[in-house]
Amino acid sequence: MTSPTRHFHWLPRLLHWSMAVLIVAMLFIGIGMVGSVSSTHEALIRLHKPLGILILLLALLRVCTRLAARPPALPTTLPRWQKHAAHASHWLLYGLMIAMPLIGWAMLSAAGDPIVLGGGLRLPPIAPQSTLLYAYLRQAHTVLAFGLFATILGHVGAALHHGLIRRDGVFSSMARGRRRE
């Protein structure tokens, strides 16, 4: 009988840390877009759109890898409510990582503003052109961005709690791979 794995496979770890960098960058790019009216604004928008689509694709891949391979078990010393909170917060993060780019894409579609990726590839609109729909989707995108930021802060706080205070292996299961015995 084999013991359960105590570390995530390399692919979920690679996706986790790559997306962490991309999402934090996107949050700052979004803040910069809102606070900028200069030529920087257009450059940030041109960067924001394809990065959002990349995050959407990576988030879908993350969900697939999560469903294909069970993550390491949480410590048995963790109270049941904390285990439930950990699972719920992870699925909330996945939902936000998928919803944010989709809402952004729909918002741009409603504005009649296409998403152009590298090589001139234009993504098709996923919502009808409508000023009112654009306004609702823009508000939703903003609210969810704040929700994503708050969820990330909670996630980082929990990770630091596990890594620095509890020292129960939860943080190291994502921070590094298996040690060679």
Automatic annotation (TrEMBL):
UniProt keyword Chaperone, yes or no: no
Pfam families tied to this protein: Ni_hydr_CYTB (PF01292)
Signal peptide: none
Keyword annotations of the record: Cell membrane, Electron transport, Heme, Iron, Membrane, Metal-binding, Transmembrane, Transmembrane helix, Transport
One GO biological process term: respiratory electron transport chain
Cellular location(s): Cell membrane
Domain Cytochrome b561 bacterial/Ni-hydrogenase: 8-177
Membrane topology: Multi-pass membrane protein
Domain of life: Bacteria
Any GO MF annotation of the entry: heme binding
Cofactor dependence: heme b
Spans through the membrane: 14-38, 50-69, 89-108, 143-164
Gene Ontology CC, one term: plasma membrane
Family named by the database record: Belongs to the cytochrome b561 family.
Protein name: Cytochrome b561
